[in-house]
Amino acid sequence: MPITFESSKTYSGVGAILLTIGIIIPVIGIIGIILLLIGLKGFADYYQDSEMLKNTFYGFLFGILGNFLFSVMTLTYIPALVFTIISRIITSPIEGVIEFASQFLIDLIIIIAIMLVLFSLENIFFKKTLHALAIGTGKKIFNTAGLLLLIGAVLTIVVIGFLILLIAWLVTAIAIFSLKPSTETTRS
Length: 188
Fold this sequence. Notes:
The protein has a domain at 5-69 and 115-177. The chain has 6 helices and no strands. The chain has helices spanning 5-22, 26-46, 50-91, 94-137, 141-154, 160-177.
């Protein structure tokens, strides 16, 4: 069953909103990125833009990997770390705790670096998708949202990046929900 223009708006708009929530609750971000993929695939079909579909898929792939890694880290790795540190403080001399903490810090830096790369790649491809939507719809707000995605991804190393990402996905959702089908676009 083909996806209609209206269902594409709904899927991708709700997906963008869930991605804003996913900045705080990563598991929700996974659901959001799946809905975004479905909706943007419908737009790629509607506008007959295979490049948009390719960029959407790559953005989806890197986004799923980044959200999965972030979810695993926040739901398992950090609680396990807290438990281990507490048990080491109780049972080990201070040198053992310092050794463990330093190794954890190295692991954490590596995980964060991998997540930043994945999220940056996700947002590079979604920026390309939003640029294609700007061309297809004539709404330049998609270019603005794409630029905000890139800036936010780079600045996630500092907290302000998360706020910029939140704004970018909200701007994207608003732009998507304001779309109307084009009478000039020919569909196959």
